[in-house]
Write a structure and sequence with these properties.
Blueprint (H helix, E strand, L loop, with lengths): L4 E3 L9 E3 L29 H5 L4 H7 L1 E4 L18 H5 L5 E3 L4 H14 L7 E4 L12 H6 L3 H16 L5 E2 L23 H16 L35 H8 L1 H8 L4 E3 L4 E2 L2 E2 L4 H11 L5 E3 L7 H5 L5 H11 L4 E2 L3 H11 L5 H17 L25 H14 L1 E5 L12 E5 L25 H8 L5 E5 L12 H10 L2 E7 L20 H10 L4 E6 L7 H6 L2 E4 L7 H9 L62 E8 L3 E3 L4 E9 L5 E11 L10 E10 L4 E8 L1 H4 L1 E2 L5 E2 L3 E8 L6 E8 L2
Parallel strand pairs: 3-4, 3-11, 4-5, 5-6, 7-10, 13-14, 13-15, 15-16, 16-17, 19-27
Antiparallel strand pairs: 1-2, 8-9, 12-17, 18-20, 20-23, 21-22, 21-26, 24-25, 26-27
Helix pairs in contact: 2-13, 2-14, 6-7, 6-15, 7-9, 12-13, 15-20, 16-20
GO biological process, one term: glucan catabolic process
InterPro entries: Cellulose_Degrad_GH3 (IPR051915), Fn3-like (IPR026891), GH (IPR017853), Glyco_hydro_3_C (IPR002772), Glyco_hydro_3_C_sf (IPR036881), Glyco_hydro_3_N (IPR001764), Glyco_hydro_3_N_sf (IPR036962), Ig-like_fold (IPR013783)
GO molecular function: beta-glucosidase activity
């Protein structure tokens, strides 16, 4: 029996994907059909997109630009739902080019046979899905993976996710999400790389390389689709789908670099954002889609809209009706209309009337067909149906190598924020341990948003992970304490009794997964419900506490950060989160994660980010300076910060040359030493400041990082090279310049402090 998962339409059930039938975990990975015609029906043969385009009718051309969701929006968990019946005659007529949300080799093959064997031209369907942080094996959310500062690890995660998805009929992932944001109120921060364009670019490159490998045509690979072009992370107030107003320098310096890297890595498609940018919705923004994306960034691939975004041009007030919306979107450069039906209903008529040229239509169709040729659909449209091994579906039936990778990814993603008096790591032979909190025994929320075909039953909870670590002599107590978002305190007494009886209480708090992701914006970034009240109660009773925060964003928790002795930011860590957290708690793994975002003290500080521009009156410059009067101006924890169970010191920053010409390069290095008692890994970070320039520049900018592993007492000299790409910036008109002047550099363990030095760039 084939197995497939499905999701509700994005507009209806944001970020939720549902498993539809059983036995996926126990099925063998599928591989594309390369066998004789007896395995699958014979197919028509085309050499390239031009040959095929010349044979197509107007309606067939439009059909290639139409993408539909393959499942109803009102499906229930566990339903076995085939493709909507009304789409089958449209596929036979060549009126649908791609389908999202329909998965499973048996299911996709059945639809593919209609397209290949029953339509006039036999053009295959391209099946896509939001494979954001795993398909069946669910890894930490992308924000957490960014906290690993480990592009190689991210590439492995993407490659494994691609193999699982490709085995079940998917060829195209609507990922990675590479939107930089300075606003953690925005729920989709969970899906992205954080606040910094350099780190985001490294992650974008790793995701694309992992999904695609040497060629996304190869078995076990997916075509990537970086999203959401562009500046979606700058929505006003952090409120999803809201308006974006962004300066041109910020556009070039902050929001475009990750897309540029993803395209350079070979991404063949890009998804346009829902939002209006500087007064023009992206689905009709020809300057950004045609001039910036295609001309400036050199993108040649497919641009598709986000969910129903073409039709929403009417709601934006930019189009008078669906005909006008179709015209504007195609003129702007949107090749594929996702789910709105606007292209299907209007484009052919618009071409016949001469409102839209057929040549413009052909450009879009040509790009879609080229993608289908490149992904190998015309050679191999089908997927072999996996065979059941008869064991049924259980969490331990997931591939061992996937679980091992998920555990490693979670270990490296967790950030140790506080460890007073070296409370951690804990001994496995404690007399008693209490595990408390609404997320301690939770499975579903550890998956996080956008968890594709992941099952809560696959998740190892924090409680289970801790139980597996403790000796048989240790007494383990558990109390939920309160709900994630409820107002009841009826469980407080039980939690207090457990904590008082234990030598240490591990308190697991945070968000529900639905509180982040799409449509998951929050106006307040404190712990929901009564969770902080629970932590206060235990602290004031004198209990020794370790607090673990599970969330899709940084939370403003100043009281907890000031009072509890040990604090972990563990994000939504995926199926092996419980084991990974236990590994870290008891010293079987050493914390090495670093924050990819700034943690605010208060929601009122937002936007707060490390790479801000200076002002004429910076904090500390006098009584009338840029500060708050009611809280410190500094963040709760800075970008790049993260502790270890050992300690690293930096010294002796050396700059190869004190002066370099414009266009030249300079090598820098510094010693980093492990001065603690344990082996540890440190993410060494390089920051730069342009001291005087024609535009105000950030006080610091990340320009490099390296992960090093050092034994106690061991030192290493870590070297970086800076060149024009790192030293330059964009002017208002988009021109990239490297200006003569003085530059300051830092090499350290976060965006604050570090060994420092200077050099100059000369005009001659």
């Amino acid at each position: 029996m084939d197995v497939f998962c499905l999701s509700l339409g994005k507009a209806q059930a944001i970020g939720a994907f549902f498993l539809v039938s059983l036995n996926l975990a126990s099925l063998l990975f599928a591989q594309e059909v390369h066998s004789s015609p007896t395995a699958m029906p014979a197919r028509r043969s085309y050499h390239n997109e031009e040959e095929l385009l010349a044979r197509m009718t107007l309606e067939e051309k439009v059909g290639q630009l139409v993408q539909v969701s393959g499942v109803p929006e009102n499906v229930e968990l566990g339903e076995t739902v085939p493709l909507k019946e009304e789409y089958k005659p449209l596929i036979r007529a060549g009126r649908i080019g791609s389908i999202l949300n329909l998965t499973g080799a048996e299911n996709t093959n059945a639809i593919q046979r209609i397209a290949v064997e029953e339509s006039r031209l036999g053009i295959p369907i391209l099946f896509g899905l939001d494979v954001i942080h795993g398909y069946r094996t669910i890894f930490p959310i992308p924000l957490a993976l960014a906290a690993s500062w480990d592009p190689g690890l991210v590439e492995q995660v993407a490659a494994f996710s691609a193999e699982e998805a490709r085995a079940h009929g998917i060829r195209w992932t609507f990922a990675p999400m590479v939107d930089v944001t300075h606003d953690p109120r925005w729920g989709r921060i969970a899906e992205g790389p954080g606040e910094d364009p350099f780190l985001a670019s490294a992650m974008a490159r790793a995701w694309v390389r992992g999904f695609q490998g040497e060629s996304f045509r190869s078995p076990g690979r997916l075509a990537a689709c970086p999203k959401h072009f562009v500046a979606y992370g700058a929505v006003e107030g952090g409120r999803d789908y809201n308006t974006v107003s962004v300066s041109l320098p910020a556009l070039w310096e902050l929001y475009l670099p990750p897309f540029e890297e993803a395209i350079a890595a070979g991404a063949p498609s890009v998804m346009a954002a829902f939002v209006s940018v500087n007064g023009r919705p992206m689905a009709s923004n020809s300057w950004l889609l045609r001039h910036v994306l295609r001309q400036e960034l050199g993108f040649r691939g497919v641009v598709l809209s986000d969910w129903k975004a073409v039709g929403e041009l009417i709601t934006h007030g930019i189009a008078s009706n669906s005909r006008d919306a179709a015209r504007q979107a195609l003129l702007a450069g949107v090749d594929v209309d996702m789910e709105s039906g606007v292209y299907a209903a209007n484009l052919a008529e618009l071409v016949r009337e001469g409102v839209v040229s057929e040549g413009l239509l052909d450009e879009a169709v040509r790009r879609v067909l080229r993608l289908k040729f490149e992904v190998g659909l015309f050679d191999n449209p089908y997927t072999i149906v996996p065979r059941s091994n008869g064991e049924g579906e259980h969490s331990n039936a997931l591939p061992r190598e996937g679980r091992e990778l998920a555990r490693l990814a979670a270990q490296r993603s967790v950030v140790l924020l506080k460890n007073d008096n070296n409370l951690l790591p804990l001994s496995k032979d404690l007399h008693s341990v209490a595990v408390i909190g609404p997320l301690a025994a939770d499975q579903e929320n550890l998956l996080g948003p956008w968890h594709a075909c992941g099952h809560p039953s696959d998740v190892v909870t924090v409680l289970e992970g801790i139980r597996a670590k403790l000796s048989s002599k240790t007494k383990l107590l558990y109390a939920k304490g309160c709900d994630i978002n409820g107002e009841s305190t009826s469980g407080f007494a039980e939690a207090l009794r457990a904590a008082k009886e234990a030598e240490v209480a591990i308190v697991v708090v945070g968000e529900a997964s639905w509180m982040s992701g799409e449509a998951g914006s929050r106006a307040s970034l404190g712990l929901p419900g009564k969770q902080e009240e629970l932590v206060r109660l235990l602290y004031e009773a004198g209990c020794r506490l370790v607090v673990i925060v599970l969330s899709g964003r940084p939370l403003a928790i100043p009281w907890i950060a000031d009072h509890v002795p040990a604090l972990f930011q563990a994000w939504f860590p995926g199926i092996e989160g419980g084991n990974a957290i236990a590994d870290l708690l008891f010293g079987d793994a050493i914390p090495s994660g670093k924050l990819p975002v700034t943690v605010p003290r208060s929601t009122g500080q937002i936007p707060i980010y490390y790479n801000h521009e200076n002002t004429g009156r910076p904090p500390g410059s006098g009584p009338f300076s840029s500060v708050y009067i009611d809280i410190p101006t500094t963040p709760l924890f800075p970008f790049g910060y993260g502790l270890s169970y050992t300690r690293f010191v930096y010294r002796d920053l050396q700059v190869e040359r004190s002066s370099i010409p414009v266009g030249g390069t300079v090598r820098l290095s510094a010693w980093v030493q492990n001065v603690g008692q344990r082996t540890g890994e440190e993410v060494v970070q390089l920051y730069l400041r342009d001291m005087v320039s024609s535009l105000t520049r950030p006080v610091r900018e990340l320009k490099g990082f390296r992960r090093v592993r050092l034994a106690p007492g061991q030192s290493a000299r870590v070297e970086f090279t800076l060149g024009p790409k790192e030293l330059g910036f964009h002017l208002e008109d988009g021109r990239f310049v490297v200006e003569p002047g003085k530059y300051q550099v830092w090499i350290g363990g976060s965006s604050e402090g570090g060994a420092s030095g200077f050099f100059e760039v000369s005009a001659s």
